[in-house]
Specification:
Order of helices and strands: HEEEEEHEEEEEEEEHEEHE
CATH class: Mainly Beta
Distance between the termini: 61 Å
Shape: globular
Structural class: mainly beta
Strand content: over 45%
Helix content: 10-25%
Largest sheet: 12 strands, antiparallel, barrel
CATH superfamily: monomeric porin ompg
Length: about 270
């Protein structure tokens, strides 16, 4: 009887210890998140303008986020518009962005906010009579579920290579609407780029509106494929047209065009 009681007590203690171990609280989730992405695009379109003369672009970046809402990131893509437009004599084949800010939700609602700084770096040598295209913007955005509006304001005087352009701004309104459980998302965008400075000539030459409509499809293993069409309105041919139109580029970089891509997130 004593032996049986000892064995029974041992078994009960073992199960109790096992249950206590199984019910131990899980380690708290890390407040830090690291993520990245890489994508291959048939061309690079930025604010409705073709950055690669209709040639493919390899793009990618890394992001750090803290649970407080703080984030930092970097992103890069090959480009050709600076050399195509004779603004750079050397380099001018890379756009490298650096950004940071703070974002979150208003309470527990679906309304979101985002504010930060974004620096566009275009390494290379500017041609005589041109300036480096490096640009610093401050931005703020508000969103609700799949709709968002973002306002960007240039803080330096050479916005994307245009002199006397401090105060140039861009308004971006977009929607990414999930189509049920199909994995498809319908993308819509409208933007307005308004240049400041130079007694109104900057506005006349470089201000315009752009729009985009597209579809993306989520694949397994965090791959995404997509297609979209972009176009502009009010883009001056002297600012963005091809050489045959009096512009500086081989082809009109503001002309409507379609783009396909595949992207991997990790």
């Amino acid at each position: 009887m004593i032996k049986q009681a000892l064995v029974s007590g041992f078994i009960s203690s073992a199960f109790a210890a096992s249950g206590a171990y199984a019910q131990a609280p899980a380690a708290p989730a890390s407040p830090h998140t690291l993520s990245g992405n890489i994508g291959l695009y048939s061309q690079y379109i930025f604010r409705g303008l073709n950055q690669t003369d209709r040639r493919p672009a390899l793009q990618g970046g890394f992001d750090y986020a803290h649970s407080s809402g703080l984030y930092l990131g970097t992103w890069a893509s090959n480009i050709s518009w600076l050399r195509d437009g004779s603004s750079y004599t050397a380099g001018g084949s890379l756009e490298w962005d650096f950004y940071g800010g703070f974002k979150g939700n208003f309470g527990k609602s679906d309304f979101t906010y985002d504010a930060g700084l974004l620096y566009y770096w275009y390494p290379g040598t500017a041609a005589s009579g041109s300036v480096k295209a490096d640009t610093l913007e401050v931005y703020g955005a508000l969103g609700w579920k799949w709709i968002a509006a973002k306002y960007s304001y240039s803080l330096n005087n050479k916005t994307f290579g245009v002199t006397d352009s401090r105060g140039t701004w861009y308004l971006d309104i977009g929607a990414d609407v999930p189509l049920g459980n199909s994995g498809l998302t319908f993308n819509l965008h409208w933007g307005k780029q308004k240049y400041s400075g130079n007694a109104g000539n900057n506005h006349r030459l470089y201000s315009y509106e752009d729009w985009k409509v597209g579809l993306t499809y989520a694949l397994p293993k965090d791959f995404t494929i997509g297609v979209y069409y972009t176009d502009t309105a009010g883009a001056n041919q002297l600012g963005y047209g091809g050489r045959a139109e009096g512009g500086a580029f081989p082809r009109n970089i503001a002309k409507g065009t379609g783009t396909i891509f595949i992207k991997k997130s990790f």
